[in-house]
Amino acid sequence: MEAAGASAGRNTRYMMEGVGARVIRGPDWKWGKQDGGEGHVGTVRNFESPEEVVVVWDNGTAANYRCAGAYDLRVLDSAPTGVKHEGTMCDTCRQQPIFGIRWKCAECSNYDLCSVCYHSDKHNPRHRFYRITTIGCERVLLEPRRKSKKIGIRGIFPGARVVRGVDWQWEDQDGGNGRRGKVSEIQDWSAASPRSAAYVIWDNGAKNLYRVGFEGMADLKVVNDAKGGTVYRDHLPMLGEQNPGRSGPHGLAIGDQVNVDLELEIVQSLQHGHGGWTDGMFECLGTTGTVVGIDEDHDIVVAYPSGNRWTFNPAVLTKVGGGMMVSNEASTSQQFSVGDLVQICADLERIKILQRGHGEWAEAMVPTLGKIGRVQQIYHDNDLKVEVCGTSWTYNPAAVTKVSSDGSVPGAASGERLSALLKKIFEAHVSGDLTEELVKAAATGDAQKVDELLKKGDVDVNGVFAGHTALQAASQNGHLEVIHILLRNNAHVEKEDKDGDRAIHHAAYGDEPAVVQLLAEDGADLNARSKRRQTPLHVAVNKGHVDPAFDYSLEPDVYENTITMHCTTCNFKNTSQPEKVRAGRWKKSLFRTNISLTEGDVLRNTSDCIMRL
């Protein structure tokens, strides 16, 4: 059971961290020219399972491929995923740290190359190199480059002619659907995601940066591809072949909980040659940490609640718990029910990783660590909406532990005890901060308390606590009575949180169509965009919620782009058999197909989806 759990954990981690990788066809490819031909490039969009991955090729084709047992893909560049090797530097271009695959010379002392320099024949081509895909994986010794075959790669590279792609959400910057532009340079969308974007000069003269790999997104589709250099094809890892987080000979894996249980003098002695010992490491004695890395020497990098990370000789560590990750399949609605009491993971490092792709992590969630909450909703992807500390957040089911098997216990005595426990947990804490009391009362739907606080006149109806206003908290949780009270007291419907989300975004996120309608009637802008350029409809589609409340007053480009994205997402997310896909009040039955995202195909898919709705 433990081995299976560890394997599931590694698969889950790989599925989270592999999104955005740039890939080419692999050794088991049998899909003709879906990719455009040998050496043509695509982007990993998402993993449907540890064995199946969705790729959007630069030519617009989207399909599912094998990444276990049979390997349809090779990883050309993992830098867009954010994978990096802390403490390393490319000895040619001086990139520090190295992002993507690390290439370490096997014949020279401490000599590393990044992928760009490795495939550009920097350093001695007669030397053998180790390929290190990520911290914690086994390094692979390769044949000298001089003896190996090179192939050209093609796709969205400088000189390519492009049009808008499946994830386009930039209005008419390009001059309109079907208008063309030319890629002038491959750049970084963010400092943490190198080579994940393309700078385009459109035929109308406009210039801007667009996502090509960042978070698996494809803002562009190539119509005339360009050369992207040459690579040593057989030196590239197969997608899924070597997962991050593998355990070393010491039996420890990324995500394991560990203690230092030996005497101080012994620990200091064992640390020689394994990172050494400093006075700051005294915090490790008697404190449980989390394994977050395993270097090529099999030393262990451990993170502690303080935020510090220390490198240890594995001989000084004792494993005290199971692996960090569990499969999502083990955390389904069969294990959790609405009303269940759950405890939030108390380890900051673990939960930050677990939350990737599951509602994400926000600093305002820090107060919930280790706290007990109540499951309010179970989303179609098994993510949990949990009420905790007077607010509601979405959690990966692997990030919570069930405290009670259900929300009600038979028998008067046990029922009274549970009611008392719930009251203790969810009753607003009287802190003296009226804004805190107001936001907590709004989040829990306590209309009477909200009304009382506002009648006192000394609380700001638009005040912020834990990053949210009372209206935003009530909107996400669907508390209509509270919202009516707040609006009567001049709550600002367009006030933004730190992410640029307004109350209507929160309502869309929480699948609360009645709230959307109420806010719209009060003048809320249905086309408002957050800092990530998302409208409420984008938010609803991304969470699997679609409702008639979103269908009016939308700008045409918002509606068309989002419905196109929605249809594509539905096709991506379906499994190999027909299945019912939850979409708010509406149900639709879609069959997964390999989609060629030409304009005609997108329109056809859109039409089919609208008719089914």
TrEMBL record:
ANK repeats: 466-498, 499-531
Keyword Ribosomal protein recorded: no
Pathway the protein contributes to: Protein modification; protein ubiquitination
Superkingdom field: Eukaryota
EC assignment: 2.3.2.27
Stored InterPro entries: Ankyrin_rpt, Ankyrin_rpt-contain_sf, MIB1/2_ZZ, Mib_Herc2, Mib_Herc2_sf, SH3_15, Znf_ZZ, Znf_ZZ_sf
SMART domains, alphabetized: ANK, ZnF_ZZ
The entry's keywords: ANK repeat, Coiled coil, Cytoplasm, Metal-binding, Repeat, Transferase, Ubl conjugation pathway, Zinc, Zinc-finger
Full protein name: RING-type E3 ubiquitin transferase
Chain's gene name: MIB1_0
